[in-house]
C-alpha cells in the first residue's frame, strides 16, 4: 500500500491532475518550513517534495543548488528537518516526499531514518544518486515504514531499463522531461507525449512529469497526457520572492475539473 499513490489516484479520479511542489527545507531558515507546508496544502497541492540540502548535490539544477547552499548556511541537516516536521506532523494533511542523497541516510542509519521519517509525515522518498540495483540497501526498511521509493525515469534510459525502473517505482513514476531540450519550452510537451505513454503502458502507478515546468501552460500541457507534475525551481524562486500568487496560479492550472465547469 502506498499513501502517496492513493493521494495521487484520488486526485486524478476526480478529473484533476496531481501537483507536487518541491521546496528546499531550511531555505530562509527552518522556521519557515511549517508555514510554507501548511500554506501549500491549503492551496490544494497533492503532495510536497521536501528537499534535504546536501554538500554535493549532483542532480540538482542551479536554482535548487543555490537554495541548498542557503539552507546549509542556515544550519539545516537531515536530522533537524525530521525534527521540525515531527513537531507539527499532526497538522500535515498531504504526503511528504523527501528528496535526499544516499549519504545522509546512511549516516543517519537506514532503519532509524525510515522510522523517524515516517513519524515526520514522509510517505515517499527520492534518492537521485542511488541506482535501482543498489536499492536493497534501503528498500526493506522503507517498506516496513510504508515509505514509497520513487524512481526517476530519464529520456535516455534504454527501453529495458525504462521498463525496469517503471515497474520498480513506488508511489509514482518521476518522468524527467528534459534532455537536450533547452530553450523553447513551448513545444516540449508534444515531443514527449509518446515517451510518457510508453512509460505509462508498463504500469498502473501514476506517471508525473518533472524538470523545467514553470508556467500554468506547462502544467496544463503535461496534464493532458500524464497524471500530473512536479515543479521545483519556479516554486523555490517564488518562495524567495514571497510571490504566493504565482504559486497559486500553478496549482490552479492542475485543477482541470474545476476549470471545466468554470468554478
Ligand atoms: O526545478 P525543476 O526544473 O522544476 O525540476 C524539479 C526538480 O528540481 C526537483 O524535483 C528536484 C530537486 N532536486 C532533485 C534531484 C533529482 C531529481 C529531482 C530533483
Automatic annotation (TrEMBL):
<dbReference type="InterPro" id="IPR002028">
    <property type="entry name" value="Trp_synthase_suA"/>
</dbReference>
<dbReference type="InterPro" id="IPR018204">
    <property type="entry name" value="Trp_synthase_alpha_AS"/>
</dbReference>
<protein>
    <recommendedName>
        <fullName>Tryptophan synthase alpha chain</fullName>
        <ecNumber>4.2.1.20</ecNumber>
    </recommendedName>
</protein>
<dbReference type="Pfam" id="PF00290">
    <property type="entry name" value="Trp_syntA"/>
</dbReference>
<dbReference type="InterPro" id="IPR011060">
    <property type="entry name" value="RibuloseP-bd_barrel"/>
</dbReference>
<keyword id="KW-0028">Amino-acid biosynthesis</keyword>
<comment type="pathway">
    <text>Amino-acid biosynthesis; L-tryptophan biosynthesis; L-tryptophan from chorismate: step 5/5.</text>
</comment>
<comment type="similarity">
    <text>Belongs to the TrpA family.</text>
</comment>
<feature type="active site" description="Proton acceptor">
    <location>
        <position position="49"/>
    </location>
</feature>
<dbReference type="InterPro" id="IPR013785">
    <property type="entry name" value="Aldolase_TIM"/>
</dbReference>
<keyword id="KW-0456">Lyase</keyword>
<dbReference type="GO" id="GO:0005829">
    <property type="term" value="C:cytosol"/>
</dbReference>
<comment type="function">
    <text>The alpha subunit is responsible for the aldol cleavage of indoleglycerol phosphate to indole and glyceraldehyde 3-phosphate.</text>
</comment>
<comment type="subunit">
    <text>Tetramer of two alpha and two beta chains.</text>
</comment>
<keyword id="KW-0057">Aromatic amino acid biosynthesis</keyword>
<feature type="active site" description="Proton acceptor">
    <location>
        <position position="60"/>
    </location>
</feature>
<keyword id="KW-0822">Tryptophan biosynthesis</keyword>
<dbReference type="GO" id="GO:0004834">
    <property type="term" value="F:tryptophan synthase activity"/>
</dbReference>
